[in-house]
Amino acid sequence: MIGSRMRMLAARQYHISAKDSANKVSTLAVRVHGGSRYATKDGVAHLLSRFNFHNTGNKSALRLVRESELLGGRFESSVDREYITLKATFLKEDLPYYVSALGDVVYKTSFRPHELPESVLPAAKADLAQAETCPVKSSEELLYGVVFRNDLGNALLYDGVQKVNLDDIKAYADKVYTRDNIEIVGQGVNEGDLKRFVNDSLFASLPQGTSLAKETTPKTYVGETRVRSSQGDSVAAIAVPVAKSDFATYQVLATYLTSALFDLSSVIHKAKLDTYSNAGLFSLYVKGADAKVVSENIQKVVAALKKGQDISVAKEAASLQLALKNETDLFSEQLSLDKVKDFKLGKFSYAAVGDVSNLPFADQL
Amino acid sequence: MPQTFTSIVKIGDFILKTPALAKVVVPVAQQFINFSGYRKLGLRFDDLIEEENNVAQKALGRIAADESYARNFRMLRAHQQSLTHHLLPKAQWVKPEEDTPYMLPYLLEAEAEVKEKQDLDNLELVK
Amino acid sequence: MLRNSSRSVFKRTLASHAKPQVTELSNGLRVATHANDQSASATVGIVFGSGSTAENPYNNGVSSALGNLFKSQGALPAAKAGVQLSSTVCKDSQSFLASYSGAGLNKSLDILQTQIAGALGSASDSAFAQATQQSLQQAEEFELNNHAGRVVEHLYSTAFQNTPLALPVRGTAEALQGLEKADLQNFAANHFRNSNAVIVGSGNLAHDELVKAVESQLSLQSGDKPVQKKQSSFLGSEVRLRDDTLPKAWISIAAEGEAVTSPNYYVAQVAAEVFGSFNAAEPSSRLQGIKLLDEVQEYHLCDSYNHFSLSHKDAGLWGFSTVISNVHQIDDLTHFTLKQWNRLTISVTEQEISRAKSLLKLKISSAAVDNVSIAKSLGADTLALGSASDLSQVFEKIDAITAKDVKSWASSRLWDQDIAIAGTGQIESLFDYMRLRNDMSMMRW
């Protein structure tokens, strides 16, 4: 009795949530506040994310892959500015195996020295090379750097500018893989089962730690940056830091600008709001092969936004977009869009990538 | 490979654990080391291990950078000595306490990986 | 043993598990739904049994243009109503879908009805011209940048030359340049009919409600189902688009596969999954239990590959696509791969099949999670098979497959059979047809 009570208590300390469904497939995700904004050195979060699903004390990476494919499941680990997310997708009946496998990875990864040069670094390098071919991603990275400088502005991927060694990665893992700093979510999973299996797994052995999640509003800056590049198209992009209270407005704005409701929507490549626990970033990208056309288009878009737009017409479309996103995303977010009215662009940061000689400067917008 | 390092280490451990055997085999082994004379050329035992195979290549790739540098230096020096038909001055002979198995742990790990892969490649399905 | 230990621990069924339902209306129109009351949104739409196979070399791309017309003309009313439109052209079908949340069913059906009427001729001339122009751009963009996709389209065009499956879904630039409003209208008039359509619904909606709404709100033209003039048939052949200015080589090789209606549909899928897919940049991908990977990785023969079993109404393709940066060893890659295909006939193991079955189940069940893709596959299944496939039945079929089934399938479909080859990029060292064809069997083993 007492034993099981104690175990229940242990379970409560985890943020566990689960949604059951009629699907045949389940998804289990462990979300760790360990993204690039918490990085102790540039790129360490990316390397730790890439180290997931390597050898652990209990199981080699090879055995994990081979067992998992016999059961019908796959793993992936991803990094963003806020989180490192470990995800397993598998046939429903195999939940216990995957809970224990994920617990293993989080608690007992062995960090063997040879894995870094043999497997982790090449994979990280491939990620970086992939990201660098996309001028939109490059300009997003630049905008984050300009607006937040550090914290959310840290480099997302490891580029080798700051050398990260195995001890840095290990220390970072110890710091972020703690009980209070992670959140476990299941989709197509019974919540009671999930809690029970989490308690029986190595998750129960993780140290308590403290949550690293940040709540105070970060300091933001306004600036501009330009990078000459011959990789793909030219991109002109603007970004505005968003306070938590304004998330709804910018969510609707992003939908408005990319829908037929806005006259210039066809020239906008992408407009989106990224939300974090204490801040957000709205960014807008204009892309094209001809930098002169991009230049004209970004000027038109910015002029239209400075004039002010009634965006309340896009409320319904935005709420549908949120609903669709929540359906496929494991981690849903709720926003009340009712009060959104209009929008006028004030100060913004600006990034130009590509044929910058033909792209405008911020003061020309 | 007829004999793996894993099996050699296993036999070695068994001999060392059995006093009767150890009493006979260890002195013979010491004598073997003396006669083979590699220490007089400034080599360690792990420098003599055949490296033209995947397992040894993997192990060599994994030893620390300074170990790898020292190994290369010892080999160059030994080649030079061999070429000129000289032994090193006695002060530079490798002392028994310096003759540590710097490569063996990596060899064992690489062998274990190969074995695990072979086992998993040849799984039998139990119904 | 791995599975048994965990399977007994926990097995649950959910009350809300709804099976797909199909109703045929008095006018011959079918309504198929796959409801899920936990979903926060729903998707309704029309799937027509006409895709690129219903086109001909002179109007190839007309479906793509109609899809663009639907999206561009519907964009404004849809955005105002909080509805999202999508349209996809496949070889055998084309979908026109609208997603909504809450009480958007009537509005969505309205938009669908208006846009289908638009395609039949009520849209302006400039709208038609613009949609065709957009399709032309998409086709050119695809030819220019999507090398892997282009190779697969050319694989189809050589494998099924002079038959319907040869036509690319995006259309050819030559055909698109000549398209006029009347071509689009005629095509819509001939194919957008009750007898050739399925109304689909997925997500948070009720079947009966949709049936009622469709009866009162939606009407398509009546008329007979258009007849397909020609059967698609496979011909061993090759097409080479050598271009040494590209950085890599993209190659696709396939034998004739299974049609969707074939009893061996899932056997072919399992066989493809035995070799699965591989991505050299992903550490976990390099550890997979695929015997082919030993050779591929030792000599870094390719950057990635993907085995497929693509099935259509009357034919299919079974093979693989690959991206190669080691362009001087293409012969090794194709040789080892085709030799591994030989093994499907003679020595594939139960363990490999078991692995493939699990991964196929995972692939099928995790592919259709969002309402739009559920609706799309629901429509395609209903058109091809008369009913929507239920995942439990699919799993049963897959579970029943043994190594013996795969061997006998492979011995008739792969062993010493003709192949189709397509490649682009630096393919100088891609062997000629006969050398590759000879690898489809062995003199002894």
TrEMBL record, chain A:
Coiled-coil segments: none
Segments forming domain Peptidase M16 N-terminal: 16-159
SUPFAM superfamilies: LuxS/MPP-like metallohydrolase (SSF63411)
Main location: mitochondrion
GO biological process, one term: mitochondrial electron transport, ubiquinol to cytochrome c
Keyword line: Electron transport, Membrane, Mitochondrion, Mitochondrion inner membrane, Respiratory chain, Transit peptide, Transport
GO CC annotation: mitochondrial crista; respiratory chain complex III
Ranges of residues in domain Peptidase M16 C-terminal: 163-307
Compartment(s): Mitochondrion inner membrane
Record-linked InterPro entries: Metalloenz_LuxS/M16, MPP/UQCRC_Complex, Pept_M16_N, Peptidase_M16_C
GO molecular-function terms, A-Z: metal ion binding; quinol-cytochrome-c reductase activity
Transmembrane helix is among the record's keywords: no
Membrane topology note: Peripheral membrane protein
PANTHER family: CYTOCHROME B-C1 COMPLEX SUBUNIT 2, MITOCHONDRIAL (PTHR11851:SF209), METALLOPROTEASE (PTHR11851)
Family: Belongs to the peptidase M16 family. UQCRC2/QCR2 subfamily.
Name recorded for this polypeptide: Cytochrome b-c1 complex subunit 2, mitochondrial
Natural source organism: Lachancea dasiensis
Record lineage: Eukaryota, Fungi, Dikarya, Ascomycota, Saccharomycotina
TrEMBL record, chain B:
Gene Ontology CC terms, in alphabetical order: matrix side of mitochondrial inner membrane; respiratory chain complex III
Location in the cell: Mitochondrion inner membrane
One Gene Ontology term of the molecular function aspect: quinol-cytochrome-c reductase activity
UniProt keyword list: Electron transport, Membrane, Mitochondrion, Mitochondrion inner membrane, Respiratory chain, Transport
Membrane topology, record value: Peripheral membrane protein
InterPro entries named in the record: QCR7, QCR7_sf
GO BP annotations, alphabetical order: mitochondrial electron transport, ubiquinol to cytochrome c; mitochondrial respiratory chain complex III assembly
Signal peptide (from-to): none
Protein's UniProt keywords contain Membrane: yes
The protein's role, per its UniProt record: Component of the ubiquinol-cytochrome c oxidoreductase, a multisubunit transmembrane complex that is part of the mitochondrial electron transport chain which drives oxidative phosphorylation.
Recorded family membership: Belongs to the UQCRB/QCR7 family.
Protein's name according to its UniProt entry: Cytochrome b-c1 complex subunit 7
UniProt organism field: Lachancea dasiensis
Source organism phylogeny: Eukaryota, Fungi, Dikarya, Ascomycota, Saccharomycotina
Automatic annotation (TrEMBL), chain C:
Pfam family, one: Peptidase_M16
Residue ranges constituting the Peptidase M16 N-terminal domain according to the UniProt record: 30-172
Gene3D superfamilies named among the record's database cross-references: Metalloenzyme, LuxS/M16 peptidase-like
Domain Peptidase M16 C-terminal: 180-360
One Gene Ontology term of the molecular function aspect: quinol-cytochrome-c reductase activity
Signal peptide: none
A single cellular component GO annotation: mitochondrial inner membrane
Domain of life: Eukaryota
GO terms (BP aspect): mitochondrial electron transport, ubiquinol to cytochrome c; protein processing involved in protein targeting to mitochondrion
PANTHER family in UniProt: CYTOCHROME B-C1 COMPLEX SUBUNIT 1, MITOCHONDRIAL, METALLOPROTEASE
Protein name, entry field: LADA_0G00760g1_1
